[in-house]
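User: Please predict the structure of the protein below. I'd like the answer in structure-token form so I can feed it into my own downstream comparison script.

Assistant: Understood. Taking the following sequence of 672 residues as input:
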Amino acid sequence: MAISNMLKLLLIGNVKERNNLIKRLHKLGCVEVATTDKIEKMQSADMGEYADKCKVKLARLEFCLETVKSYKPTALKLAKEQKIDYIPAKGKGPFQTRPLISFEDFSNLKDIETDIFTQISQLKEYTDKIIALRAKTQKETNVIASLAPYANMHAPFSKFKDTATASVLLGEVAKTKVALFEKIESEYGGVYEVFQGSGNSDGVAIVIDKSKREDIQQLLADTEFTACSISSDSTPEEMRAQAEKNLAETEKERNLAIEAIMTFENIFDDVKRLHDYFTLEVAKAESENRTQTTSSTYYLEAWLPEGEKDRVDKDLENSPLSLAYTIREPLESETPPTFVESNGVVAPYESVTNMFSVPFYKEIDPNPSVAFFFFLIFGMMLGDAGYGLLLTLGTGIILALRKPPKGEMNLVKIMFMGGISTFIWGFLFGSYFGLSATDLGIWCWFNPIEDPMPLLILSLAVGVVQMFFGMAINMVALIKKHQPVWGISSAFSWYFLALGIGGIFGASYIGAWAKTAGIVFAVLGVVLLMLSGTFGKRGAKKVTGALSSLYGIINFFSDIMSYTRIFGLGLASGVIGMVFNEIASVISGMMPFKFMGVIVTIIICIIGHTFNISINALGAYVHNSRLQFVEFFGKFYTGGGELFAPLGSQMKYYRIGEPVEAKKASKSKQKQ
């Protein structure tokens, strides 16, 4: 369980065989091609055009996946309304691991490329059709909206036109301003008719002598009269009927297009395989771009874990390719990528560390300590044996059924181990689904609900231990960097301070000598703390560094207080569980029949405790992570590393490997 030593592969070969070598490295799955520095009389490879073509294909594949997914809710609704025939493709369910695909099958995926992209082109036609139909729908909707003011007009629009002596105006006005048109008759000698609209506006037809057409402009402005732009020979009713018919036909066409789009769910597996294929093609092209070439040769550099040296050496040695290579230790000026080798218990917690930052290559692996403290604190935060049992059983069943490989379903694995921790702490705290050990007549160490102070003290003690452990890691790291005085003083200053403060405040329990010893340790701790602040500084900066270290005492106690969140979450889960139990008890007591009370109690408890375990498990994960990132990592962690990404690790949907069935068949043949 440590950051693996990395080795550098230096290789030169025939430029015509470069692509075959990259494929070979991909099959090995443990080599990351590095960027090669500029070499005289050699030039960088140019695979940019091919990479761009692959990226365009990736975009088309993603278009297929995202488009079908985006239309699925609509398709389900239409199927429920029996407007289309659609049965959703059988899903793989939650918590799925990536399926295996053999290297040979993966290499031959290009054979299905033409067929898949032809189908994606058809999918594009359907989506384009839906866009056009959407525009048509909007057009017909606008027509219906424009007809609303003329709902009770029975004449064709084309009838409203000027004669030799009269001006005829047709338009719409707000219902609240229709009364103003009385002036048409009383002051201008014209006539008007109002058509009751179906919306907020009414249609108005005005007939007036042409000589007075200009005189009514102000009146039209005051009423916000809007002239009708429709000149059809049809009546509003006929136009509305036609528009509604067009809408119905458009909707039918749209539904058929959506039904056709959903048939593309059947090619999702092939689309995902091709997506991984072209993702790897991009990675290979970018790897080739990192090499230096001449007209006949290429030069490549790559990183590999020390444990893979023999396998890579053997593969290249037996390779039919024309090449020469060597594998060496990294130079002092080189910074290899980080590859962490962890066992099955620690590996899931790498995801927690990497959320903050990937470890730097030369630093101490933080993951074992993160795993221990995360496991410890998670259980304290949830703190109920019943919840721990449910969490362990639930996630354990998922892991047993799915059998995820290393690196997958890390959250489920963390929750599984967190459930074990929760069960242990819940037993110690005497909490079982919100019921206390006192009520059940069971032994417990202490009950935080009845006596919260021990939990607060325990939370702070865990915080002190974790931070001191982080300081110890930092001390070891500084000693490895040949800075032992700095390392020892920076860690032991805090240790002595803690002993000193403990001795001073504990003298009344231990004895008078403890106070004297405490003062000595406290003074020694302050001196060492100030000393540690002077390292790496010169002149007056040594003084400011020493004083700044003293100010760090405030930050130290602030960090300790952050661990009270363990106390808060631990109490919260217990109290909420207890409240749900009380609610169930009260409501069940109000039921007229005992069996009804039992049923109500079961329902309330299931809903309440499910909510409690869900929200508090999430809270435990988030706040636990925060303690690792801020309080723990702040004492020693550098981070800033680059995660080791060998060829093949870029795949999203599948894993290269031999399926179980193929392995069995292979073993069977070997026995025969």
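That's the full token string. The first strand starts at residue 2 and ends at 3.
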